[in-house]
Amino acid sequence: MALLYGAERSKRHIAERTGSLSQFAGVRLMTLGDGVERGVRLLEFRTGSGLRFTVLVDRAMDIAECDHAGRAVGWHSPSGFRNPALHDYEGEGGLGWFRSMSGLNITCGLDHILFMHDDPACHYNYGPREVVSSSLHGRVGTIPAQLTGYGERWEGDACIFWAEGIVRQSTVFGEDLHLIRRIEADLGGDEIRMTDRVVNHGFYTTPHMYCYHINVGHPVVAEGARYVAPVREVLWAAHADDYQKQGVGYRTLPAPIVNFHEQVWQHDMAPDGGGRVEVALVNEALGFGFSVTTRKDQFPCMFEWQNLHAGHYAVGIEPSTNHVLGKDFARERGELILLEHGEERHYDTVLQVLPDSAAVSAAVARIEGVMLQPQEEYPAPTGNYPAIGSRA
Questions:
Q1: Distance CA 271, CA 350 (A)
Q2: How many folded domains does the chain comprise?
Q3: Which of 133, 136, 137, 314 is the most exposed place for a label (fewest CB within 10 A)?
Q4: In the predicted model, is pLDDT for residue 93 greater than 60?
Q5: Are both 222 and 204 inside the same structural domain?
Q6: Strand, coil or helix: what is 86?
Q7: Cis omega before residue 84 (within 30°)?
Q8: Residue 33: per-residue pLDDT
Q9: pLDDT digit string (tens) for 41-91?
Q10: Cα gap 177→200, rounded to integer Å
Q11: pLDDT tens figures, 179-204
Q12: What digits encode the pLDDT tens for the residues 237-250?
């Protein structure tokens, strides 16, 4: 049965009360028409529970807006949902990525994540190309998808809204990686299911690195809100040399701060009995929150990003295939994923709005039932980077 407006309803019951399901919920294709966003195709999902989110077809099928019953979840930056035709990937010394950074989810990869990097290109067997130069967080996030389908699917009395697309990060004498992304949400549901396959379509042995930059804003992020996660060890902090300078720890959030400099941690997370890792941002005073559930075997690493500068004000949950020290570190340790022709990697992620105090409390209980995180705000980073796959 579908849950709609607080009651279980059959397909027939719903059909009897409207000429189209779109009166209550649905998914539809639209095009933005003004400013830097002009021409960007998006899919708007409405589940009927109060959950609404948009998928940017022309930006890697990433999730842009997300709100629930009029309350925002996804972060909007000053950059807007910029048309990828305006994007200069190599611009600003590799930091041009920030001019297109906005939305609930930004995909990083497919062959590079983290800061700028030059990698030997000998594996592409083309003399004039000596290095692969990568800018911040890779190319994929501003590549338009080929939209292969979207709509609604009934399974008995349950209805699933879905969309699927293919994003091709490809060049001559270089990588030919395809991201096949499927997004689903249930009629009456509060969760978004994102299933990705990254496939080497080419015939060169090709590196693969992958990360989601999942950005949550106000009112989930607010003074007193908490980062709740099964943290068994804090591995690294970008600001560890002056750890308490800004007066903001990893766990409890302040009000916006003028001239706040971003802070980033890497935590080692404990999975539950099914191999899943759930991380949440919760505003208990408001009775509102958001959680991200990934698989430890797919995303063994997890970063926490705080951008609490006034006018930005967001916190990022960032599951990653690799440690924060980057591609050279991964290669030296034998942890860099190398895909041969036809090989692929799978990623299964659930994004869930926690719409009330009961849902927030349940998420906190689930997470703390796996591992109680450090209660101090400034746990000392250990500098210990577990071998990928060594900690189940």
A1: 15
A2: 2
A3: 133
A4: yes
A5: no
A6: helix
A7: no
A8: 97
A9: 999 999 999 999 999 999 999 999 999 999 999 999 999 999 999 998 888
A10: 5
A11: 999 999 999 999 999 999 999 999 99
A12: 999 999 999 999 99
C-alpha distance from residue 40 to each of 58, 62, 81, 276 (Å): 6, 12, 8, 34
Domain that holds residue 235: 217-392
Write down which residue in 209, 229, 252 finishes a domain. Answer: 209
3-state SS, 50-84, equals CEEEEEECCCCCEEEEEEECCEECECCCCCCCCCH
DSSP 8-state code for residue 102:
-
Shared domain check, 239 and 184: no
* Cα–Cα distance measured from residue 136 to residue 88, given in angstroms and rounded to the nearest whole number: 12
* Shared-domain flag, residues 202 and 221: no
Locate all alpha helices (DSSP H) within the chain, ordered by sequence.
Answer: 11-15, 326-332, 357-370
CA-based end-to-end distance of the chain: 36
Within a 10 A sphere around the Cβ of 15, how many other Cβ atoms?
A: 12
- As a whole number of angstroms, the distance between CA 363 and CA 278 comes to 8
Q: How far apart are CA 142 and CA 82, in angstroms?
A: 9
Yes or no: say if 27 and 150 are a contact pair by the CB < 8 Å rule. Answer: yes
pLDDT at 6: 86
DSSP codes joined into one string, 342-357 = T-EEEEEEEEEEE-SH
User: Is residue 134 helix, strand or coil?
Assistant: strand
Cα–Cα separations (whole angstroms), residue 203 to 120, 248, 315: 17, 47, 39
Give the domain CATH number at 349.
2.70.98.10
Can you tell me the mean pLDDT for 339-354? 98
